[in-house]
Amino acid sequence: MEMNLFAQKVVNALNEKFDGQYTFDSQDVLKTNGINLRGIYAQVEDGITPVVYIDKYLLDYRMGKGFDVITAEIASEYLEAMRIAPVRFDEDQLLDGDRARSKLLAKLVNYDLNKEMLQSVPHRRIDDYAIIPIMDIDYGNGTGEVKFTKEQFEKFGWDENEVIDEAFNRTVTECPAVISYMSELAFGMGDSANLLKEDIEGAVEGLLVVTNTTSCDGAIALYYPEVKEWFDQHINGDFYIIPSSIHEVLIIPNGKGADISSLTAMLLSVNGAMVADNEVLGTRALRYDKKAGCFVS
Hints:
- By secondary structure, this protein is an alpha+beta fold.
- The chain contains eleven helices and 14 strands.
- It has helices at residues 3-18, 55-62, 67-84, 92-95, 97-101, 115-118, 150-156, 160-174, 182-186, 225-234, 260-274; strands spanning 23-30, 36-44, 47-48, 52-53, 105-110, 124-126, 129-138, 143-147, 177-181, 208-212, 239-245, 248-253, 286-289, 294-296.
- The strands form three sheets. Strands 9-10-12-11-13-14 form a six-stranded antiparallel β-sheet.
- The protein is globular, with a radius of gyration of 22 Å.
- The N and C termini lie far apart (44 Å).
């Protein structure tokens, strides 16, 4: 069964099951990196409730799981999301320009993998990536995000550069950077030290991880001013970055036996095996040229 038919069948079954309590519908949702998912949601009087993505359920159906069982699981997932969520999503914050603007944060995504999305979403190109402003939404059982379109920016009278600057500066303040040794994280040595807060003299050695205090969408920390200053002070010469995911990047000091082609091959291998498609940040490693003050391929 193809997705459109399956989604409509699910919508019909849920509307019958809930008998007017909720009115369900479905829509395609374009996620990061060009990933399209089909979501089921319910319209209610005071807003839009959480979305349940049904792509995995279609796979279950194709593998032979009964449709009634699948419908019950989708209904259960939806009700659990509603139970855990402290409040339903307040749509008014999307309509109030000042209120929405005050909540925007910055996220780093891959530019080439998101060209379709970026046609309608305000952004700033930087190296292989793009900075986009987002609003985080807490559903209680997890978080989601809202991306504002260029059309909404125009409606609110927002200047794209000003809003992106504000979102970036707010992210620097509300989601401070963390630089840690990869060895401490890999071997589970408790709370690894944030090297930004350590009194360090001279250069550091070893593989480093750059993220933020939430470890969510932390790759943007690579471009924080204090992180760049720390690199200048504590990494001798050029260094490589491996954009391991939207949540963190890895830093490898130059002269450690690495070369950009082997690092890119490693990155692509890890992307395919360990990183969710919508969390991939990069498709190649980059080298930071300290003399030039920029990343190069």
